[in-house]
Amino acid sequence: MNIGIIGTGYVGLVTGVCLADSGNNVYCVDNDKNKISLLNSGVIPIYEPGLEELMLKNIKNERLIFTEDLDFAVKKTDVIFIAVGTPPQGNGEADLSNVFKVAESIANSINGYKVVVVKSTVPVGTCRKVDAIIREITDDFSVVSNPEFLKEGAAIDDFQRPDRIIIGINNNKWSSKAKEIIDEIYEPFVRTGAPIYFMDTNSSELTKYAANAMLALRITYMNELANMCSLTGANVDNVRIGIGSDKRIGKSFLFPGIGYGGSCFPKDVKALYQTAKANGYDFKLLKVVDEVNYYQKEVLLSYILKYFKGDISGKTFALWGLSFKPKTDDIREAPSLVIISKLLAYGAKIKAYDPIAMDNTKKVFPQVEYANEMYEALKGSDGLIIATEWNDFRVPDFKKIKDNLKDNVIFDGRNVYDPKKMKEFGFNYFSIGR
Length: 434
Hints:
The structure is a single chain. With 434 residues, this protein is α/β, with parallel strands linked by helices. The chain is 43% helix and 14% strand. It has 3 domains: 2-199, Rossmann fold; 209-296, N-(1-d-carboxylethyl)-l-norvaline Dehydrogenase, domain 2, CATH 1.10.1040; 299-430, Rossmann fold. An 8-stranded mixed β-sheet has the order 3-2-1-4-5-6-7-8, with helices on both faces. A 6-stranded parallel β-sheet has the order 11-10-9-12-13-14. 44% of the residues are buried.
């Protein structure tokens, strides 16, 4: 099948590469001339395990083409995915201007029946608006909602082996044809029995936000429990195991830490709150989740200030981990950024290390010193802060850590180490809820 992808950001690029790898001819469109040039030469703008290899393979096999020409891509394809960004506005509401501009451009280029798939994360009712925009020019199309559920660091596997695929199609004269086409596209990815759920577009759009908000809620709840454990002497690890063994609750997303980040959870929680507000409903729970998550990013700072008796001016801290989670270079809404900002405001210095995300962080904090390897960051530092649970940090040389730190203190924002072992090693060790 000939497929167009409008937008070569994280979602668009992963979608395009995976669809090309299943045998389709895919035309990826972006209005960034430099990005298109880099992609055509095999240079990938993001870090995602396995993505570069698949992209190069499908460029070589001539199934994956990158272009600035949207009109060309629309005319060459049967299905067009809209995968442009929907960044938050000042009040947290999703900015849909790019989605609507693309819809108008598609409408002006349609040369026969097309399925227009909205892959971007959009509020309830957006697909109906996209439909109305295109319908002003032609009715030879269907608009389909197909939210993405890709985890950064595992996006290829998530796309190729999904838990489920959500499709929103509203009933009209083309709905049966659109369903057949979508079934054909996703058939290679559901052979192991993963379900495709068909529903109306409003329900599909809300499902995306509801899923991310639920996961953010679980993380936030565990962080609140961890803070309570710190005050009462309970151990959050024991609590997590105790409640996670309940089949009604399950074990996923019950690990406490220093807050969630990335491009999805913070944005989607705010956007869902604003959508509810626009419909006359005060979704109080979401507002609290957002507030608690920001506070949680400062928890380690309170431990640091208490340990150094309120004065960290002139102190140097080694910071391991900058990305919001492992296996990605994404620092959007990363807790590390809040930690860095607060430490600098108190007059401290930072020596940071991350396996992937340092180049992105340098653009935000050029004044921070960046180490070439993890132990180099420790030299002359007064303490170690862990902000991301990269595998590199899980089983370090603790003797080397002690030999390089000026003070044997570790502030672990991801509960990477066992408190008992840390005590045996002679560290002053601070973690979340233990």
